[in-house]
Amino acid sequence: LPPGPVHRPLAGRRALVTSGPTHEPIDPVRYIANRSSGKQGHAIAAALARLGASVTLVTGPTREPDPPGCTVHPVETAREMLAACEAALPADVAVCAAAVADWRVADAAERKLKKEGGGPPSLVLVENPDILATLSQPGARRPALVIGFAAETGDVLAYATAKRARKGCDWIVANDVSPGTGTFGGSENTVHLIRADGAESWPTMGKDAVAARLAEAIAGHFA
Ligand code: CTP
Ligand code: CA
C-alpha cells in the first residue's frame, strides 16, 4: 500500500508529558506510592508523537514500554519529576497525567528500618511540590497550553472545575475513579474535558482513544 496522507499537525511543536506514579522512599527498600499504571500518560505521549510533536515523557516507575518516538526520562520521586520537567522546558504544551504522591516522608532513613527497637516507626509526611501548579505559573517559560488530570470520586465535575482554577492550568481532563469504574490499571476511561468555557463529556473509550482525541484537541488548539 502507498503511504496514506500524512497528518502531522503538531510538527514543530514541543510537548512535555508526565506519567505514572511517583515512589517516595521511606528507607532504602520501602516506599509510598499509588495505583497509577501509566497507561493513560504513556498513550498521550505516543499520540502527540504520532501527530508530529517532539515529545519528552517524564515518567515514574511503570510496566509500560517506552512510547515510540518519545524522549523518555524515568524518575522515582515527585521532586525528581519536577526537576526533569523544568529541564525539559520550553514546551508548547504540557500534559500532567502523572499520579504524583501528594506526600513524602520528611526524613527518609538512610538505613533499612528494623523491627527491633520498640514498636512500629511513625512516619512524618511533608507535602510534595505540585508539578502541574508550578508549570502553570505565569512567566516566560510557561507552556502556552497546560493540561492537568483530575481523578475524582463523587461530584467529579465540580471537584475538577475547582481544581482547574486552583492549579491555574488551561484544561483539566477529569475522570471518575470510584471503585467499580475500572479506571485504575484498566484500559478504558470515561472522561470530561474541562476548559474555560465549560465541560465536554466523552463516551467511555479505550485509553488509547482518549489519548488520540486529546492529541487532536491539542492540535486544534494550535491550528
Ligand atoms: N499533580 C502534580 N503534582 C502534584 C500533585 C498533582 O503535578 N504534586 C497534578 C497531577 O498530575 C494531575 C493534577 O495535578 O494532573 C491533579 O492531581 P490530583 O491528585 O487530582 O490533585 P491534588 O491537587 O493533589 O488534589 P487531591 O487532594 O484531590 O489529590
Ligand atoms: Ca493528589
Largest sheet: 8 strands, mixed
Strand content: 25-35%
Distance between the termini: 29 Å
Bound molecules: cytidine-5'-triphosphate, calcium ion
Treating each run of at least 4 consecutive H or I residues as one helix, how many helices?
A: 5
Give the class from helix and strand content and strand pairing.
alpha/beta
Query: What characteristic shape results from the CA principal axes?
Result: globular
Q: Helix-strand pattern, N to C?
A: EEEHEEHEEEHEHEEEEEH
Helicity level:
25-40%
Report the C-alpha radius of gyration, rounded: 18 Å
Structural account:
- With 223 residues, the chain is an alpha/beta fold.
- The chain has five helices and 14 strands.
- The protein has helices at 39-50, 78-88, 131-136, 156-167, 207-222, and strands at residues 14-19, 24-27, 30-32, 54-59, 70-74, 93-96, 103-105, 125-127, 145-152, 171-176, 188-189, 191-195, 198-201, 205-206.
- The strands form four sheets. An eight-stranded mixed beta sheet has the order 5-4-1-6-9-10-12-13, sandwiched between helices. A two-stranded antiparallel sheet has the order 2-3.
- A hairpin with a 2-residue loop joins strand 2 and strand 3 (30-32).
- It is globular.
- It binds cytidine-5'-triphosphate and calcium ion.
- Cytidine-5'-triphosphate binds next to helix 3 and strand 9.
- Pathway: Cofactor biosynthesis; coenzyme A biosynthesis; CoA from (R)-pantothenate: step 3/5; Cofactor biosynthesis; coenzyme A biosynthesis; CoA from (R)-pantothenate: step 2/5.
- It catalyses: (R)-4'-phosphopantothenate + L-cysteine + CTP = N-[(R)-4-phosphopantothenoyl]-L-cysteine + CMP + diphosphate + H(+); N-[(R)-4-phosphopantothenoyl]-L-cysteine + H(+) = (R)-4'-phosphopantetheine + CO2.
- One of its GO terms (biological process) is pantothenate catabolic process.
